[in-house]
Amino acid sequence: MKKNILEICCYNLDSVLIASEAGADRIELCADPASGGTTPGIGLIKTARKKIGIELYPIIRIRGGDFLFSEEEFEVMLHEVTACKSAGCDGVVFGMLSEDGRIDKTHSSKLIEKAYPMGVCFHRAFDWSVNPFEALEDIIEIGCERILTSGQQPKAIMGAPLIKDLITQAAGRIQIMPGSGIRAGNIGDLKKETGATQFHSSASKLKKSSMDFVQPFMIEDQSVIMADRGEIEEMILRLRT
Fold this sequence. Notes:
single chain, 8 helices
């Protein structure tokens, strides 16, 4: 296994291809960046799986907002997990909390069972939990392989002290993967400060529309969030040093 792993969050097929070609180890595939990521369409999932050979983990999050889901929403999530398995994905990413801010172990366990033998990462719903150290043990108990966290801060570099403590407590039982605001300029420092070996980044930039014609009466920005090849390559370089 590689000493350091770089996962790139991608919101479209072009970004998936860019990240794979630039040397990323894993793709977290999402839709709707404005809401923090929701489940991508099955067409995108299947096409991404066909186009790349690296690990592919779609997010299972059927809406933006909080991480307290109804039984009806949970039913949809089960179907989404099944679709990802049928598409040949390596794993899925999800997070569910109870009303009291603790890990929803009951429903999460059912999703993990449905996902098997795919891997499962518990996403940044973790950062909204009431007690991160208790949440860590709960997530280990239900069988996730990895936790994506910013250390319960808006950006991972701000949450580095908690991330370090979580890695110490995990003691190799689960991977703690920092994410949020990670770029080439801070990934090296985060690696040193936390001892993490897996990192998550969107490595994004805005790509302007290639349309020759722009309707002058429409004011919406038609730029697209796109993975930045140079940024990914630079992060990989920093992780090797």
